Amino acid sequence: MTVDSSALPAWLRIAELFGPTVQGEGPSVGQRALFIRLSGCNLDCSWCDTPYTWDWSRFDQTAESRETAVAEIEGWVRVQGKDGDLVVITGGEPLMQRRGLVALVVALGGLGRRIEIETNGTIPPGPDLVAGVHRFNVSPKLTGSGVPEQRRIRPLALRSFRDCGKAVFKFVVTGDDDVAELAELQRRFGLTPVWVMPEGTTPESVLAGMRTLAAPALEHGWNLTPRLHVLLWGDERGR
């Protein structure tokens, strides 16, 4: 990646660092991973399972969010991780801090880590970020999120991810309306590959949702993913 890291911000606003654990969703499910959770989000999904990253009406921002040097985050990954480990950068919405995110990706790339970024797909990544990551797990939000379509579906950003060659598309599905909208979005934007998973924060709700989603996933050619961390540990934070 040909990026002058000295010109990039030297810090990020983070919510938490945790791991090693396992990646719970998508194509890397079950793999050993470290998680870097950034603060801030440009959406407000009704079922969000990490509202402490953005909902300052319910959570204390000074307690839940802190400015952290990129060098400190890199040092944590160096100590906690192993060669070849997966590092998942999530949120909130990481691309709200895109320039600092590039600095972190440059630093972690120097450690030989594989990097996945979880994003809601509303902010284009840019070539400097694309160059440094292994995969974008792009999760556009559907009707069940309660967010108006004009805020959650951004055509330019979705096309940017689709065309970058490093994106998979992972959707949280809450019911039949979401299934229908997902099929239309896939047709409209040519999104592939697609992974679907149920909303849920208990093992029982996740398993029930997966049973419901199995038939439409097979019908449409989508991949079905669990929320493995929920099956293993419920809604425990830092897992």
Automatic annotation (TrEMBL):
Keywords, comma-separated and alphabetical: 4Fe-4S, Iron, Iron-sulfur, Lyase, Magnesium, Metal-binding, Queuosine biosynthesis, S-adenosyl-L-methionine
Cofactor(s) this protein cannot do without: Mg(2+); S-adenosyl-L-methionine; [4Fe-4S] cluster
Pfam families in the cross-refs: Radical_SAM (PF04055)
Reactions listed under catalytic activity: 6-carboxy-5,6,7,8-tetrahydropterin + H(+) = 7-carboxy-7-carbaguanine + NH4(+)
Pathway: Purine metabolism; 7-cyano-7-deazaguanine biosynthesis
Domain Radical SAM core stretches: 28-235
Signal sequence coordinates: none
Residues engaged in binding substrate: 22-24, 37, 90
Catalytic activity, EC: 4.3.99.3
Residues involved in Mg(2+) binding: 50
Residue sites binding S-adenosyl-L-methionine per the record: 47-49, 92, 139-141
EC primary class: lyase
The record's free-text note on cofactor binding: Binds 1 S-adenosyl-L-methionine per subunit. Binds 1 [4Fe-4S] cluster. The cluster is coordinated with 3 cysteines and an exchangeable S-adenosyl-L-methionine.
Annotated residues for binding of [4Fe-4S] cluster: 41, 45, 48
Subunit structure: Homodimer.
Physiological role: Catalyzes the complex heterocyclic radical-mediated conversion of 6-carboxy-5,6,7,8-tetrahydropterin (CPH4) to 7-carboxy-7-deazaguanine (CDG), a step common to the biosynthetic pathways of all 7-deazapurine-containing compounds.
Protein family according to the UniProt entry: Belongs to the radical SAM superfamily. 7-carboxy-7-deazaguanine synthase family.
Entry-linked HAMAP family: QueE (MF_00917)
Name of this chain's protein: 7-carboxy-7-deazaguanine synthase
